Amino acid sequence: MCFHISISKSKNQVSDRFKIAFEDLDYKPIFHLNGFSNQKCYVISITNKNKLISAVWGLKPADFSATDNFNLNTLNAKSETVFDSLLYRKPILENRCLLIA
């Protein structure tokens, strides 16, 4: 089941559960999302806890550009080493989000 999620709840159920707004978001349930498909999923950002946004699952380095060939699996971090990793250390401390699934 790693890298696969679903969210079958309705817009109202998600809004009621998390007390969030759906401004400018065309929300539709996702019955199967493969993390490697680069399909958008729904998250609540630490910087805006009252709004649901769409995002691609994974972590890209801060210096990543859209023209770069990104071939690193960053969908899952090991809890035992996440704070020692140069790639994960800063984001896990400063830039977390809640993935709705």
Features:
alpha+beta, globular, single chain, 2 helices, two-stranded antiparallel sheet
List the topology elements:
Elements: E1 4-7, H1 11-18, E2 30-34, E3 40-45, E4 52-56, H2 89-94, E5 97-99
Antiparallel strand pairs: 1-2, 3-4, 3-5
Short summary:
This protein has two helices and five strands. It is of the alpha+beta class and about 100 residues long. The strands form two sheets. A three-stranded antiparallel sheet has the order 4-3-5, with no helix packed on it.
* Main sheet makeup: 3 strands, antiparallel
Distance between the termini: 13 Å
Number of strands: 5
Shape: globular
Identify the quaternary structure here: single chain
Structural commentary:
By secondary structure, this protein is α+β, with helices and mostly antiparallel strands. The chain is built from two helices and five strands. It has a three-stranded antiparallel beta sheet, with no helix packed on it. Strands 1-2 form a two-stranded antiparallel ribbon. Strand 3 and strand 4 form a beta hairpin. The mean pLDDT is 84.
